[in-house]
Amino acid sequence: MKILVPVKRVIDYNVKPRVKADGSGVDLANVKMSMNPFDEIAVEEALRIKEAGKAEEVIAVSVGPAKATETLRTALAMGADRAILVQVDDGVEVEPLAVAKILKAIADEEQPGIVMLGKQAISDDSNQTGQMLAALMDRPQGTFANTVEVEGDSVTVKREIDGGLETVKLTLPAIVTTDLRLNEPRYASLPNIMKAKSKPLDTKSPADFGVDIAPRLKTLKVSEPPVRQAGIKVADVDELVAKIKALGIA
Length: 250
Prior knowledge:
Blueprint: E1 2-6, E2 9-11, E3 18-19, E4 26-27, E5 33-35, H1 37-51, E6 57-64, H2 68-78, E7 82-87, H3 96-110, E8 114-118, H4 129-137, E9 141-151, E10 154-161, E11 164-171, E12 174-178, H5 190-196, E13 201-204, H6 237-246
Parallel strand pairs: 1-6, 1-8, 6-7, 7-13, 8-12, 9-12
Antiparallel strand pairs: 2-5, 3-4, 9-10, 10-11
Helix pairs in contact: 2-5, 3-4
Domain Electron transfer flavoprotein alpha/beta-subunit N-terminal: 23-213
GO biological process, one term: carboxylic acid catabolic process
Subunit structure: Heterodimer of an alpha and a beta subunit.
């Protein structure tokens, strides 16, 4: 069985994003970039399934600029067998539906038993690609995975939901999206980082898969969130009620 793991290049989670002066978007100049944390978890889980003898190959794929090669090399250094970069022009943001269409085309070629991806990217928090991919491919899906167990021709996924955990059993092939508590991703060792440089990495374009990546949404303005105001102390309930009324909350 193959496992296909999409990964995205995003601003490192330790970096505070800066908004461009003209409000047209987020400033990426001289900003540290890294693999989306949820995707790191997906790579780790795919590798654990392979190490358990339940998969033969882990393929990392990314849709992004040429610099996304670095992100794919990270996945290869962690242990993925090969990688595919679907390259777009620098500065082009590919929307979830277009990404899902590209992933469907790759999955049709590779025929993976599982497509395992992070539940969302921290760059836009869309949480859409996995679900759209499952719909396009007409495959069962287990989203927000807390636990993943592959047995024979099925995979059991414990999902994190508002009320606790929900367990679903999916017939393979299936789509799984990973949540934070699924695992702790490994660090790539120096020898594996060196080995990753010689692992296969193919470069494609959206046109190779017949996918139009023209945006369907237009960003009107990007701005910093309002600064949180300092709290105040009140002497008693009457003063609290008066303050609430003065603010127009009640």
